[in-house]
Amino acid sequence: MKKYTIYLFVLLGAVLGFLGAAESFLAMLFVIAAMCFIIMVMSDYEKATYVVAAYSIIDFLLRTFAGGFAGIWDEAYLAVLILLWIYKLFINQKEDGIKLAPLDFPAAFFITAMFFILIVNTSDISIGIEGFRASVQYILWYFITVQLLRTEKGAKNLLIAFSLISGFIAMHGIYQYVIGAEMPTGWVDSKEAGVRTRVYSILGSPNVMGSLMTLSAPICFALGLNQRKKGKCALFIFLSLCMVISLLFTFSRGAWIGFAAAAVLYVFLKDKRWFIPAIIAGVLAILIVPGVGSRLSYMLSSEYIESSMKGGRLIRWTRGLTILKDNLLLGVGHGQFGGAVAMNHGIKRLIETEVIKTFYMDNYYLKTAVETGIVGLGAFLTLILSVFTSFLRTIRVTADKGLKEIEIGILCGAAGVIVHNFVENIFEVPMMATCFWLLAAVMMHFWRLNFVKKGIV
Protein backbone atom coordinates (compact mmCIF):
# COMPACT_ATOMS: atom_id res chain seq x y z
CA MET A 1 0.00 0.00 0.00
CA LYS A 2 2.83 2.40 0.88
CA LYS A 3 4.41 1.95 -2.56
CA TYR A 4 1.24 2.94 -4.41
CA THR A 5 0.69 5.79 -1.97
CA ILE A 6 4.11 7.18 -2.76
CA TYR A 7 3.43 6.94 -6.51
CA LEU A 8 0.14 8.77 -6.10
CA PHE A 9 1.57 11.66 -4.12
CA VAL A 10 4.69 11.98 -6.23
CA LEU A 11 2.35 12.49 -9.18
CA LEU A 12 0.17 14.92 -7.24
CA GLY A 13 3.26 16.76 -6.01
CA ALA A 14 4.54 17.09 -9.57
CA VAL A 15 1.24 18.56 -10.74
CA LEU A 16 0.99 21.05 -7.87
CA GLY A 17 4.68 21.82 -8.18
CA PHE A 18 4.12 22.73 -11.83
CA LEU A 19 1.23 24.99 -10.84
CA GLY A 20 3.39 26.57 -8.18
CA ALA A 21 6.13 27.22 -10.71
CA ALA A 22 3.67 29.37 -12.60
CA GLU A 23 3.69 31.69 -9.59
CA SER A 24 7.32 31.50 -8.50
CA PHE A 25 10.24 29.12 -8.15
CA LEU A 26 10.04 29.34 -4.35
CA ALA A 27 6.38 28.39 -4.47
CA MET A 28 7.28 25.31 -6.48
CA LEU A 29 9.93 24.35 -3.93
CA PHE A 30 7.42 24.76 -1.11
CA VAL A 31 4.86 22.53 -2.79
CA ILE A 32 7.46 19.84 -3.46
CA ALA A 33 8.61 20.05 0.16
CA ALA A 34 5.02 19.70 1.35
CA MET A 35 4.51 16.66 -0.86
CA CYS A 36 7.74 15.10 0.44
CA PHE A 37 6.46 15.58 3.97
CA ILE A 38 3.25 13.77 3.13
CA ILE A 39 5.16 10.95 1.46
CA MET A 40 7.25 10.46 4.59
CA VAL A 41 4.22 10.22 6.87
CA MET A 42 1.91 8.14 4.70
CA SER A 43 2.15 5.26 7.18
CA ASP A 44 0.32 7.53 9.62
CA TYR A 45 -2.37 9.65 7.95
CA GLU A 46 -3.02 11.94 10.88
CA LYS A 47 0.48 13.44 10.67
CA ALA A 48 -0.61 15.23 7.51
CA THR A 49 -2.78 17.45 9.75
CA TYR A 50 0.31 18.79 11.53
CA VAL A 51 0.90 21.11 8.59
CA VAL A 52 -2.35 22.88 9.44
CA ALA A 53 -1.09 23.50 12.98
CA ALA A 54 1.78 25.42 11.39
CA TYR A 55 -0.60 27.58 9.32
CA SER A 56 0.64 30.89 10.74
CA ILE A 57 4.30 30.30 9.92
CA ILE A 58 3.67 28.69 6.52
CA ASP A 59 1.37 31.53 5.48
CA PHE A 60 3.91 34.14 6.61
CA LEU A 61 6.75 32.49 4.67
CA LEU A 62 4.67 32.22 1.53
CA ARG A 63 3.42 35.80 1.77
CA THR A 64 7.02 36.92 2.17
CA PHE A 65 8.70 34.80 -0.49
CA ALA A 66 6.15 33.13 -2.77
CA GLY A 67 4.00 35.99 -4.04
CA GLY A 68 0.61 35.00 -5.45
CA PHE A 69 0.82 31.39 -4.32
CA ALA A 70 0.29 32.56 -0.73
CA GLY A 71 -3.36 33.16 -1.57
CA ILE A 72 -4.12 29.58 -2.65
CA TRP A 73 -1.76 27.31 -0.71
CA ASP A 74 -4.28 26.54 2.04
CA GLU A 75 -6.97 25.64 -0.47
CA ALA A 76 -4.50 23.45 -2.35
CA TYR A 77 -3.52 21.67 0.85
CA LEU A 78 -7.14 21.22 1.87
CA ALA A 79 -7.68 19.52 -1.49
CA VAL A 80 -4.66 17.31 -0.77
CA LEU A 81 -6.12 16.22 2.57
CA ILE A 82 -9.50 15.50 1.01
CA LEU A 83 -7.82 13.34 -1.65
CA LEU A 84 -5.81 11.63 1.08
CA TRP A 85 -8.98 10.79 3.01
CA ILE A 86 -10.75 9.46 -0.11
CA TYR A 87 -7.70 7.36 -0.92
CA LYS A 88 -7.67 6.04 2.65
CA LEU A 89 -11.32 5.03 2.38
CA PHE A 90 -10.59 2.80 -0.61
CA ILE A 91 -7.16 1.46 0.29
CA ASN A 92 -7.29 1.08 4.05
CA GLN A 93 -10.77 -0.33 4.55
CA LYS A 94 -9.90 -1.94 7.89
CA GLU A 95 -10.06 1.50 9.55
CA ASP A 96 -13.21 3.45 10.28
CA GLY A 97 -15.13 4.62 7.26
CA ILE A 98 -16.87 7.97 7.56
CA LYS A 99 -16.59 9.14 11.18
CA LEU A 100 -19.50 11.00 12.69
CA ALA A 101 -19.39 13.51 15.56
CA PRO A 102 -21.89 15.83 17.33
CA LEU A 103 -20.74 18.94 15.47
CA ASP A 104 -21.32 17.46 12.02
CA PHE A 105 -25.01 18.30 11.75
CA PRO A 106 -24.81 21.90 13.12
CA ALA A 107 -21.88 22.61 10.78
CA ALA A 108 -23.70 21.09 7.80
CA PHE A 109 -26.87 22.99 8.74
CA PHE A 110 -24.95 26.28 8.83
CA ILE A 111 -23.39 25.64 5.43
CA THR A 112 -26.81 24.73 4.01
CA ALA A 113 -28.39 27.90 5.42
CA MET A 114 -25.59 30.03 3.96
CA PHE A 115 -26.03 28.32 0.58
CA PHE A 116 -29.78 28.92 0.68
CA ILE A 117 -29.19 32.64 1.29
CA LEU A 118 -26.67 32.69 -1.56
CA ILE A 119 -29.27 31.26 -3.94
CA VAL A 120 -32.23 33.42 -2.96
CA ASN A 121 -30.58 36.71 -1.95
CA THR A 122 -27.63 37.61 -4.18
CA SER A 123 -27.44 40.79 -6.20
CA ASP A 124 -23.94 40.05 -7.55
CA ILE A 125 -23.25 36.33 -7.94
CA SER A 126 -19.45 36.64 -8.06
CA ILE A 127 -19.31 38.71 -4.87
CA GLY A 128 -21.95 36.44 -3.33
CA ILE A 129 -19.90 33.31 -3.99
CA GLU A 130 -16.79 34.99 -2.61
CA GLY A 131 -18.65 36.01 0.54
CA PHE A 132 -20.22 32.57 0.90
CA ARG A 133 -16.80 30.94 0.61
CA ALA A 134 -15.35 33.29 3.24
CA SER A 135 -18.12 32.23 5.64
CA VAL A 136 -18.04 28.46 5.22
CA GLN A 137 -14.76 27.35 3.64
CA TYR A 138 -12.76 27.11 6.86
CA ILE A 139 -15.29 24.77 8.44
CA LEU A 140 -14.12 22.17 5.91
CA TRP A 141 -10.91 21.87 7.94
CA TYR A 142 -13.07 20.52 10.75
CA PHE A 143 -14.69 17.83 8.60
CA ILE A 144 -11.46 16.58 7.04
CA THR A 145 -9.39 16.67 10.25
CA VAL A 146 -11.97 14.56 12.09
CA GLN A 147 -11.65 11.95 9.35
CA LEU A 148 -7.84 11.86 9.37
CA LEU A 149 -7.13 11.81 13.11
CA ARG A 150 -6.68 8.27 14.39
CA THR A 151 -5.24 8.14 17.89
CA GLU A 152 -5.14 10.08 21.13
CA LYS A 153 -1.37 10.45 20.85
CA GLY A 154 -1.65 11.84 17.33
CA ALA A 155 -4.19 14.45 18.41
CA LYS A 156 -2.02 15.44 21.38
CA ASN A 157 1.00 15.79 19.08
CA LEU A 158 -1.06 18.09 16.88
CA LEU A 159 -1.81 20.25 19.93
CA ILE A 160 1.85 20.22 20.93
CA ALA A 161 2.89 21.40 17.46
CA PHE A 162 0.28 24.17 17.57
CA SER A 163 1.43 25.26 21.05
CA LEU A 164 5.12 25.28 20.18
CA ILE A 165 4.50 27.41 17.09
CA SER A 166 2.26 29.81 19.02
CA GLY A 167 4.93 29.97 21.72
CA PHE A 168 7.55 30.94 19.16
CA ILE A 169 5.26 33.70 17.87
CA ALA A 170 4.67 34.86 21.45
CA MET A 171 8.41 35.13 22.14
CA HIS A 172 8.86 37.08 18.94
CA GLY A 173 6.10 39.43 20.08
CA ILE A 174 7.91 40.02 23.37
CA TYR A 175 11.06 40.76 21.40
CA GLN A 176 9.14 43.33 19.35
CA TYR A 177 8.01 45.04 22.53
CA VAL A 178 11.54 45.11 23.95
CA ILE A 179 13.00 46.75 20.83
CA GLY A 180 9.98 49.03 20.38
CA ALA A 181 8.86 47.83 16.95
CA GLU A 182 7.31 50.52 14.75
CA MET A 183 3.55 50.63 14.35
CA PRO A 184 1.05 52.72 12.37
CA THR A 185 -0.14 55.80 14.27
CA GLY A 186 -3.77 54.73 13.87
CA TRP A 187 -3.27 51.75 16.18
CA VAL A 188 -3.39 53.98 19.28
CA ASP A 189 -5.67 56.94 19.97
CA SER A 190 -3.80 60.20 20.44
CA LYS A 191 -5.40 60.64 23.88
CA GLU A 192 -3.99 57.37 25.22
CA ALA A 193 -0.73 57.47 27.16
CA GLY A 194 1.93 54.88 27.89
CA VAL A 195 1.51 52.67 24.79
CA ARG A 196 4.85 52.88 22.99
CA THR A 197 4.17 49.95 20.65
CA ARG A 198 1.69 47.18 19.95
CA VAL A 199 3.16 43.81 19.01
CA TYR A 200 1.98 41.73 16.08
CA SER A 201 4.89 39.34 15.34
CA ILE A 202 4.51 37.70 11.90
CA LEU A 203 0.72 38.13 11.86
CA GLY A 204 0.57 41.79 10.85
CA SER A 205 -2.17 42.75 13.32
CA PRO A 206 -2.10 43.11 17.13
CA ASN A 207 -5.76 42.11 17.30
CA VAL A 208 -5.12 38.87 15.41
CA MET A 209 -1.99 38.30 17.49
CA GLY A 210 -4.03 38.76 20.66
CA SER A 211 -6.69 36.37 19.45
CA LEU A 212 -4.12 33.66 18.65
CA MET A 213 -2.60 34.05 22.12
CA THR A 214 -6.07 33.84 23.67
CA LEU A 215 -6.74 30.61 21.78
CA SER A 216 -3.39 28.95 22.45
CA ALA A 217 -2.45 30.00 26.00
CA PRO A 218 -5.03 27.82 27.84
CA ILE A 219 -4.12 24.84 25.65
CA CYS A 220 -0.39 25.29 26.23
CA PHE A 221 -0.92 25.68 29.97
CA ALA A 222 -3.05 22.51 30.06
CA LEU A 223 -0.38 20.60 28.12
CA GLY A 224 2.15 21.72 30.72
CA LEU A 225 0.05 20.40 33.60
CA ASN A 226 -0.36 17.14 31.68
CA GLN A 227 3.38 16.46 31.31
CA ARG A 228 5.02 13.88 33.54
CA LYS A 229 8.57 15.08 32.95
CA LYS A 230 9.44 18.28 34.81
CA GLY A 231 11.42 19.68 31.88
CA LYS A 232 8.51 19.41 29.46
CA CYS A 233 6.11 20.72 32.07
CA ALA A 234 8.32 23.76 32.65
CA LEU A 235 8.63 24.37 28.89
CA PHE A 236 4.89 24.51 28.25
CA ILE A 237 4.20 26.57 31.37
CA PHE A 238 6.92 29.00 30.26
CA LEU A 239 5.47 29.23 26.75
CA SER A 240 1.97 29.82 28.10
CA LEU A 241 3.36 32.63 30.26
CA CYS A 242 5.04 34.11 27.17
CA MET A 243 1.68 33.96 25.39
CA VAL A 244 -0.04 35.89 28.18
CA ILE A 245 2.73 38.50 28.29
CA SER A 246 2.65 38.87 24.51
CA LEU A 247 -1.15 39.16 24.69
CA LEU A 248 -0.73 42.10 27.07
CA PHE A 249 1.76 43.72 24.71
CA THR A 250 -0.70 43.59 21.81
CA PHE A 251 -2.77 46.13 23.74
CA SER A 252 -5.80 44.60 22.07
CA ARG A 253 -8.70 45.33 24.40
CA GLY A 254 -10.93 42.91 22.54
CA ALA A 255 -8.40 40.10 22.97
CA TRP A 256 -8.04 41.00 26.65
CA ILE A 257 -11.80 40.67 27.09
CA GLY A 258 -11.74 37.31 25.29
CA PHE A 259 -8.85 36.06 27.41
CA ALA A 260 -10.56 37.25 30.61
CA ALA A 261 -13.61 35.19 29.64
CA ALA A 262 -11.35 32.20 28.87
CA ALA A 263 -9.56 32.58 32.22
CA VAL A 264 -12.79 32.79 34.22
CA LEU A 265 -14.14 29.70 32.47
CA TYR A 266 -10.87 27.83 33.03
CA VAL A 267 -10.88 28.61 36.75
CA PHE A 268 -14.55 27.63 37.01
CA LEU A 269 -13.96 24.25 35.33
CA LYS A 270 -10.54 23.52 36.81
CA ASP A 271 -10.54 24.81 40.41
CA LYS A 272 -12.66 27.63 41.79
CA ARG A 273 -9.99 28.31 44.42
CA TRP A 274 -7.95 29.92 41.64
CA PHE A 275 -10.36 32.85 41.34
CA ILE A 276 -8.57 35.07 43.86
CA PRO A 277 -5.06 34.41 42.45
CA ALA A 278 -6.42 35.04 38.94
CA ILE A 279 -7.89 38.39 40.01
CA ILE A 280 -4.63 39.34 41.71
CA ALA A 281 -2.70 38.45 38.55
CA GLY A 282 -5.03 40.65 36.49
CA VAL A 283 -4.63 43.59 38.85
CA LEU A 284 -0.83 43.21 38.83
CA ALA A 285 -0.83 43.19 35.03
CA ILE A 286 -2.73 46.49 35.02
CA LEU A 287 -0.38 48.04 37.57
CA ILE A 288 2.93 46.72 36.25
CA VAL A 289 2.64 46.86 32.44
CA PRO A 290 2.78 50.49 31.24
CA GLY A 291 -0.20 51.46 29.15
CA VAL A 292 -2.58 48.67 30.20
CA GLY A 293 -4.35 50.77 32.80
CA SER A 294 -4.64 53.83 30.55
CA ARG A 295 -5.89 51.68 27.66
CA LEU A 296 -8.64 50.20 29.83
CA SER A 297 -9.60 53.44 31.58
CA TYR A 298 -9.80 55.29 28.27
CA MET A 299 -12.21 52.64 26.96
CA LEU A 300 -14.60 53.56 29.79
CA SER A 301 -14.25 57.32 29.39
CA SER A 302 -16.65 59.77 27.76
CA GLU A 303 -13.86 60.79 25.36
CA TYR A 304 -13.67 57.25 24.00
CA ILE A 305 -17.44 57.04 23.54
CA GLU A 306 -17.44 60.36 21.71
CA SER A 307 -14.53 59.30 19.50
CA SER A 308 -16.07 55.89 18.83
CA MET A 309 -19.37 57.45 17.81
CA LYS A 310 -17.51 59.57 15.24
CA GLY A 311 -15.34 56.93 13.59
CA GLY A 312 -15.04 53.85 15.79
CA ARG A 313 -16.91 50.70 16.73
CA LEU A 314 -19.99 52.36 18.14
CA ILE A 315 -20.85 54.27 14.97
CA ARG A 316 -20.11 51.14 12.90
CA TRP A 317 -22.41 49.04 15.06
CA THR A 318 -25.12 51.73 14.89
CA ARG A 319 -24.95 51.80 11.11
CA GLY A 320 -24.87 48.01 10.97
CA LEU A 321 -28.03 47.79 13.05
CA THR A 322 -29.70 50.36 10.78
CA ILE A 323 -28.92 48.26 7.71
CA LEU A 324 -30.09 45.10 9.50
CA LYS A 325 -33.40 46.72 10.45
CA ASP A 326 -34.14 47.30 6.77
CA ASN A 327 -33.01 43.81 5.69
CA LEU A 328 -34.00 41.77 8.71
CA LEU A 329 -34.81 38.34 7.30
CA LEU A 330 -32.02 37.53 4.81
CA GLY A 331 -29.71 40.54 5.09
CA VAL A 332 -28.11 42.38 2.19
CA GLY A 333 -26.39 39.32 0.77
CA HIS A 334 -23.02 37.56 1.12
CA GLY A 335 -20.04 39.88 0.79
CA GLN A 336 -22.18 43.01 0.56
CA PHE A 337 -21.26 44.89 3.76
CA GLY A 338 -19.16 44.80 6.90
CA GLY A 339 -16.39 42.36 6.01
CA ALA A 340 -13.27 41.67 3.97
CA VAL A 341 -15.08 40.79 0.73
CA ALA A 342 -17.09 44.00 0.75
CA MET A 343 -13.94 45.98 1.57
CA ASN A 344 -12.06 44.42 -1.34
CA HIS A 345 -14.85 45.35 -3.73
CA GLY A 346 -15.42 48.85 -2.32
CA ILE A 347 -19.13 48.24 -1.68
CA LYS A 348 -21.19 51.31 -0.81
CA ARG A 349 -24.67 51.47 0.70
CA LEU A 350 -27.30 54.12 1.29
CA ILE A 351 -28.00 54.50 5.02
CA GLU A 352 -30.92 56.84 5.56
CA THR A 353 -29.81 59.83 3.44
CA GLU A 354 -26.08 59.18 3.36
CA VAL A 355 -24.03 56.93 1.06
CA ILE A 356 -21.60 54.99 3.25
CA LYS A 357 -18.55 53.11 2.03
CA THR A 358 -18.25 49.70 3.66
CA PHE A 359 -16.02 49.11 6.68
CA TYR A 360 -15.08 46.28 8.98
CA MET A 361 -18.01 45.89 11.35
CA ASP A 362 -15.67 44.90 14.22
CA ASN A 363 -18.32 42.46 15.37
CA TYR A 364 -18.47 39.20 13.44
CA TYR A 365 -21.97 38.40 14.69
CA LEU A 366 -23.35 41.73 13.55
CA LYS A 367 -21.47 41.42 10.26
CA THR A 368 -23.08 37.99 9.75
CA ALA A 369 -26.50 39.41 10.60
CA VAL A 370 -26.16 42.36 8.20
CA GLU A 371 -25.11 40.11 5.31
CA THR A 372 -27.39 37.12 5.96
CA GLY A 373 -30.15 38.41 8.22
CA ILE A 374 -31.64 36.68 11.22
CA VAL A 375 -31.73 33.42 9.23
CA GLY A 376 -27.97 33.40 8.77
CA LEU A 377 -27.26 34.74 12.24
CA GLY A 378 -29.54 32.11 13.76
CA ALA A 379 -27.73 29.34 11.90
CA PHE A 380 -24.35 30.70 12.98
CA LEU A 381 -25.34 31.11 16.63
CA THR A 382 -26.72 27.57 16.58
CA LEU A 383 -23.35 26.35 15.33
CA ILE A 384 -21.39 28.32 17.95
CA LEU A 385 -23.70 27.12 20.73
CA SER A 386 -23.22 23.56 19.48
CA VAL A 387 -19.44 24.04 19.61
CA PHE A 388 -19.68 25.08 23.25
CA THR A 389 -22.12 22.38 24.34
CA SER A 390 -20.33 19.62 22.41
CA PHE A 391 -17.04 20.59 24.02
CA LEU A 392 -18.65 20.53 27.46
CA ARG A 393 -20.17 17.09 26.83
CA THR A 394 -16.79 15.79 25.71
CA ILE A 395 -15.22 16.99 28.96
CA ARG A 396 -17.99 15.38 31.01
CA VAL A 397 -17.66 11.94 29.40
CA THR A 398 -13.85 11.89 29.62
CA ALA A 399 -12.61 9.68 32.43
CA ASP A 400 -8.87 10.25 31.95
CA LYS A 401 -7.85 13.26 34.08
CA GLY A 402 -4.94 14.23 31.85
CA LEU A 403 -7.05 14.23 28.72
CA LYS A 404 -9.82 16.14 30.51
CA GLU A 405 -7.23 18.79 31.43
CA ILE A 406 -6.35 19.29 27.77
CA GLU A 407 -10.01 19.38 26.73
CA ILE A 408 -10.68 22.14 29.25
CA GLY A 409 -7.81 24.11 27.73
CA ILE A 410 -9.28 23.74 24.23
CA LEU A 411 -12.76 24.76 25.41
CA CYS A 412 -11.46 27.86 27.19
CA GLY A 413 -9.28 28.96 24.28
CA ALA A 414 -12.19 28.54 21.87
CA ALA A 415 -14.53 30.41 24.24
CA GLY A 416 -12.08 33.32 24.34
CA VAL A 417 -12.11 33.58 20.54
CA ILE A 418 -15.91 33.33 20.47
CA VAL A 419 -16.10 36.28 22.89
CA HIS A 420 -13.44 38.24 20.98
CA ASN A 421 -15.61 38.02 17.86
CA PHE A 422 -18.12 40.36 19.52
CA VAL A 423 -15.66 43.22 18.99
CA GLU A 424 -13.62 42.01 16.00
CA ASN A 425 -14.08 40.12 12.74
CA ILE A 426 -11.71 37.37 13.90
CA PHE A 427 -13.36 34.58 11.88
CA GLU A 428 -12.59 36.57 8.72
CA VAL A 429 -8.89 35.91 9.32
CA PRO A 430 -8.10 32.63 7.50
CA MET A 431 -5.43 31.58 9.99
CA MET A 432 -7.68 32.10 13.02
CA ALA A 433 -10.74 30.45 11.47
CA THR A 434 -8.64 27.48 10.35
CA CYS A 435 -7.03 27.01 13.78
CA PHE A 436 -10.41 27.30 15.53
CA TRP A 437 -12.00 24.58 13.41
CA LEU A 438 -8.87 22.45 13.58
CA LEU A 439 -9.17 22.45 17.37
CA ALA A 440 -12.89 21.72 17.10
CA ALA A 441 -11.96 18.61 15.12
CA VAL A 442 -9.45 17.57 17.79
CA MET A 443 -12.16 17.95 20.44
CA MET A 444 -14.63 15.85 18.47
CA HIS A 445 -11.89 13.25 17.93
CA PHE A 446 -11.52 13.04 21.71
CA TRP A 447 -15.30 12.66 21.96
CA ARG A 448 -15.15 9.68 19.59
CA LEU A 449 -12.23 8.12 21.46
CA ASN A 450 -14.20 8.24 24.71
CA PHE A 451 -17.06 6.30 23.18
CA VAL A 452 -14.72 3.91 21.36
CA LYS A 453 -13.24 3.00 24.73
CA LYS A 454 -16.75 2.31 26.00
CA GLY A 455 -17.56 0.21 22.94
CA ILE A 456 -20.35 2.53 21.79
CA VAL A 457 -18.72 3.76 18.56
Give your account of this protein's structure.
This protein has two domains: 2-98, no CATH class; 119-301 and 365-453, no CATH class. It has a two-stranded antiparallel ribbon with strand order 1-2. With 457 residues, the protein is mostly helical. Helix 9 crosses helix 11, helix 12 (253-270) runs antiparallel to helix 19 (401-420) and helix 18 runs parallel beside helix 20. It has helices at 2-23, 25-40, 50-53, 55-65, 73-91, 104-120, 125-136, 139-148, 152-179, 206-225, 230-250, 253-270, 275-288, 292-299, 302-311, 313-326, 340-345, 364-397, 401-420, 430-453; strands spanning 348-351, 354-357.
Tell me the layout of helices and strands.
Blueprint: H1 2-23, H2 25-40, H3 50-53, H4 55-65, H5 73-91, H6 104-120, H7 125-136, H8 139-148, H9 152-179, H10 206-225, H11 230-250, H12 253-270, H13 275-288, H14 292-299, H15 302-311, H16 313-326, H17 340-345, E1 348-351, E2 354-357, H18 364-397, H19 401-420, H20 430-453
Antiparallel strand pairs: 1-2
Short description:
72% of the residues lie in helices and 2% in strands.
